[in-house]
Amino acid sequence: MEKLELHIPEVKGKSEAKVYTAEMPKLTVGFTRRLMSLIKIDGAESTADIARSIMNAWENCAMILSEAFPDVTDDEWDLVDIEEVIQIIVQIARSSMAKAMTIPAEKKTKN
C-alpha cells in the first residue's frame, strides 16, 4: 500500500520537527465526493492553479488530509508548507483515481 508522509517544521522554542506517516485513505463514497469537489486538478496548467483550487476548497482538503493524518493538529497544519499539501493532495487524487479505474464494470448482456 502506498504511504503518505507529512513534515511539520520545527518552531524554535515551541515545538520540534515531526514527520507523520500514513496509509492512503480508504476510497469511500464520502471521501470520493469530497475529493471530486476539488479535483479541478486535471485541468490545472500550473502548481499555482492547483494551489488556488486547494485554497478555494480548503474545508474539503482539510477533511481529506485529516482522514489520512488524523493526529495532526490545526496548529500543526498551519505550519505545513503549501507545496507539500499540494503534493499530498495530488498523490491522493492520482492513487484514488487509479484505484477507481480498476473496479470492473458490468458488461451489458443481450436479452
What order do the helices and strands follow?
EEHHHHH
Strand order of the largest sheet: 1-2
Main beta-sheet strand count, sense and barrel state:
2 strands, antiparallel
**Unreliable stretches:** none
Structural class designation = mainly alpha
Query: What overall form do the CA principal axes indicate?
Result: elongated
Task: Measure the end-to-end span.
Answer: 41 Å
Number of strands: 2
Our count of helices gives 5
Into which percentage range does the β-strand content fall?
Answer: 5-15%
Range of helix content:
40-55%
Mean pLDDT, rounded to whole units? 80
CA radius of gyration is 16 Å
Write the topology of this structure.
Layout: E1 3-8, E2 18-23, H1 29-38, H2 47-56, H3 58-68, H4 74-77, H5 82-101
Antiparallel strand pairs: 1-2
Description:
The chain is mainly alpha-helical. 50% of the residues lie in helices and 11% in strands. The chain is built from five helices and two strands, in the order ββααααα. The chain has helices at 29-38, 47-56, 58-68, 74-77, 82-101; strands at 3-8, 18-23. It has a two-stranded antiparallel ribbon with strand order 1-2. It is elongated and about 70 Å long. The N and C termini lie far apart (41 Å). The mean pLDDT is 80.
